[in-house]
Design a protein that fits this description.
With 267 residues, the protein is mainly beta. Helix content is 14%, strand content 37%. The protein contains four helices and eleven strands; from the N terminus they run E-H-H-E-E-E-E-E-E-H-H-E-E-E-E. It has helices at 26-43, 48-51, 176-184, 189-194, and strands spanning 7-12, 56-67, 77-87, 92-100, 105-117, 122-124, 154-162, 195-204, 213-220, 230-237, 243-253. The relative contact order is 0.16. The model has no long low-confidence stretch (mean pLDDT 91).
């Protein structure tokens, strides 16, 4: 069901969207959210190729997602629905829901978008575009307050990543999904089999470019409420030690396990 207030699109999960147990990855959720929102904004004539004519660029600065354990599997069909829930002078909040073809919810959340003035390289007001943007404030799924992370924790490991051409987007910057991919490298197969991601927050803070070396530091955050739940913070820094992105995640023990030998035949 598509109208000017909401937009839905159905995707078939590909092999690139799955982990070693055929489950849809968090990176795929981010990918399809961004793609679906871009399709929606193109219907409103506010896509990237529309606003660039006015020297504007859409930039996502924050992403928050909550996951159900009953995830989608390769090659399930998923329906992604997006809508805008809040539009201010400088920020737009776009919600999303991911649902399997059998009606089971997979994930929901929202992203925060801003407009960048490509000539001045600073935030541009959203006011000229507000009349074109339908808003459904009654369908805000979570609070839009800024999430803060503890500053103390137990350092666990450090990963370095040299930016290569496949990490770049059409603007010549490192695409935002690359930061999540770097963060997820620290989770080995045994951990992913035993634990499911429950919550994910990403803050994108600085741009990075081809040839940069990104240093990802993984910290285990304190948790005094449930010893079986893990809270992690990945801080990804640029060459100049400035933080480019932060990835916060919560993981809970899995209750649903997939037997690969009995997995349904692919379509």
């Amino acid at each position: 069901m598509n109208n000017m207030n909401q937009y839905s699109h159905t995707y078939s999960l590909t092999a690139a969207d799955m982990d070693t147990r055929y489950r849809m990855t968090p990176n795929a959720v981010l990918l399809y959210y961004q793609d679906c929102w871009a399709r929606y904004m193109s219907c409103l004539h506010l896509a990237a190729f529309d606003v660039v004519k006015q020297n504007r660029l859409w930039v996502i600065t924050e992403f928050n997602a909550w996951f159900e354990e009953q995830t989608a599997l390769w090659s399930d069909d998923i329906e992604v629905t997006v809508w805008n829930s809040e539009v201010g002078a400088l920020r737009l909040y776009a919600e999303f829901r991911v649902r399997r073809s059998d009606g089971v919810d997979v994930a929901h959340g929202y992203g925060c978008w801003t407009l960048l003035d490509t000539e001045a390289h600073r935030l541009a007001p959203m006011t000229p575009f507000q009349p074109q943007i339908p808003v459904l404030p009654e369908m805000t799924s979570e609070t839009h307050r800024k999430r803060r992370y503890p500053t103390d924790g137990t350092p666990l490991q450090q990963i370095e990543h040299r930016v290569n051409p496949i990490n770049l987007d059409f603007n010549g910057h490192v695409n935002n999904r690359t930061y999540l991919s770097i963060a997820m490298q620290s989770a080995d197969e045994a951990f992913m089999d035993a634990y499911a991601i429950r919550c994910l927050t990403i803050h994108w803070l600085k741009e990075t470019f081809l040839g940069d070396t990104l240093t990802c530091r993984l910290t285990l955050l304190p948790n005094e409420t449930d010893e079986h739940v893990y809270h992690y913070l990945h801080s990804i820094a640029r060459n100049d030690a400035e933080t480019a992105a932060q990835v916060y995640s919560e993981w809970i023990p899995r209750t649903e396990h997939i037997d690969v030998s009995e997995h349904a035949p692919r379509k």
